[in-house]
Design a protein that fits this description.
The complex is a heterodimer of chains A (87) and B (237). Chain A has 87 residues and is mostly helical. Chain A has a domain of 55 residues: F1F0 ATP synthase subunit C (F1FO ATP Synthase), CATH 1.20.20. Chain B contains 7 helices and 2 strands. Chain B has a two-stranded antiparallel sheet with strand order 1-2. Classes of the chains: A mainly alpha (87), B mainly alpha (237).
Chain lengths: 87, 237
């Protein structure tokens, strides 16, 4: 049976697959944020007096580490909604 | 009115919408007044009114603060402390810019609570803020290092010039994309929730999502944007 799809539909399908693949970038920030939170927790355990400093430093570092994952999100959203490969 | 997040058409519920169209073209594209522009006008007016009211209050400020004066003094002290932690004795030169940025971005991020689409979830807004920061960084670099600001790009080896140049131009892109993508993910999640869920799930349940996406994420990203602006400026002093 012959599959009858136009080139446009093929591009849409490939864009959706690409958007899914782009979100693999979420693995890295997840691991990084987890490591940061783990070390933050152990630092609070060792020195409970510095809890507010440790928390703010940890959150700042996590927010910066999140950036690479957000780049993946932006690429996925552009592929899904902006449709740059429309002919 | 298309200003509000909740709409029945799912695909359009979290997009930027043009409210009214101008009768002329600009560079081959149509010109709209978008939801972003209207939300930021509302936010600007709110900040303006708040500033005028507080300024009137501070005309007869008391030695022992009460009420709103208490809150404002606390906020100013927090902003100054944030500047002190990075900039040290140069704090007074930049705290006006960073404080203005902080108030505007924070109000924009929290505008999801008022049912508006956050203006910072539009790359046009955050990129402008990034470009302002970039201009200040470059101005301070040229002012303080003179020609050394450009020869510094060839340090430590001339081969590294392209990497240094990219590193210089990546700063505004990365800080603006970080703010934009965080807010956009919140807007998309809330738009999907309001668009997909049955009516009884729209009453109290989204408050959890609002608390995370608007309040927590928005406050952290505001802090990070201002902090990184000060770190980059401090590098050039």
């Amino acid at each position: 049976m012959g599959l009858n799809i136009s080139g446009q539909d093929f591009i849409y399908g490939c864009s959706a697959i690409g958007a899914g693949l782009a979100l693999i970038a979420g693995i890295g920030p997840g691991v990084g944020q987890g490591i940061a939170a783990g070390y933050g927790a152990s630092a609070v355990g060792r020195n409970p007096g510095a809890k507010s400093d440790i928390t703010s430093t940890m959150l700042l570092g996590q927010a910066v580490a999140e950036t690479t994952g957000l780049y993946g999100l932006v690429v996925a959203i552009i592929l899904m909604f902006v449709k740059p490969f429309n002919s | 009115m298309g200003l509000f997040l909740a709409e029945n058409d799912l695909a359009k519920s979290f997009m930027i919408k043009g409210i009214c169209e101008f009768p002329f073209d600009f560079l081959g594209g149509k010109v709209y007044i978008t939801t972003t522009a209207i939300s930021s006008w509302i936010i600007t007016i709110m900040i303006l009114v708040f500033g005028i009211v507080v300024g009137k209050k501070f005309k007869n400020a008391k030695e022992v603060p009460t009420g709103i004066q208490n809150f404002i003094e606390m906020a100013i002290e927090a902003l100054n402390g944030m500047g002190d932690s990075i900039l040290g004795e140069n704090r007074n030169r930049f705290v006006n810019y960073v404080g203005t940025l902080f108030i505007f971005i924070l109000t924009c991020n929290l505008s999801g609570f008022m049912g508006m689409r956050a203006p910072t979830a539009d790359y046009g807004v955050t990129f402008c803020l990034g470009v302002f920061t970039f201009a200040i960084i470059q101005f301070q670099g040229i002012k303080n290092h003179g020609f050394g600001h450009f020869t510094g790009l060839f340090q430590p080896l001339p081969v590294l010039f392209p990497i240094n140049l990219i590193g210089e131009f990546a700063n505004p892109i990365s800080i603006s994309l970080r703010l934009f993508a965080n807010l956009l993910s919140g807007v998309i999640m809330l738009g999907l929730w309001y668009g997909m869920m049955p009516i009884f799930a729209k009453i109290a349940v989204p408050s959890v999502l609002h608390a995370y996406c608007d309040l927590f994420s928005g406050a952290i990203q505001t802090y990070v944007f201002c902090m990184l602006t000060m770190v980059y400026v401090n590098d050039k002093l």
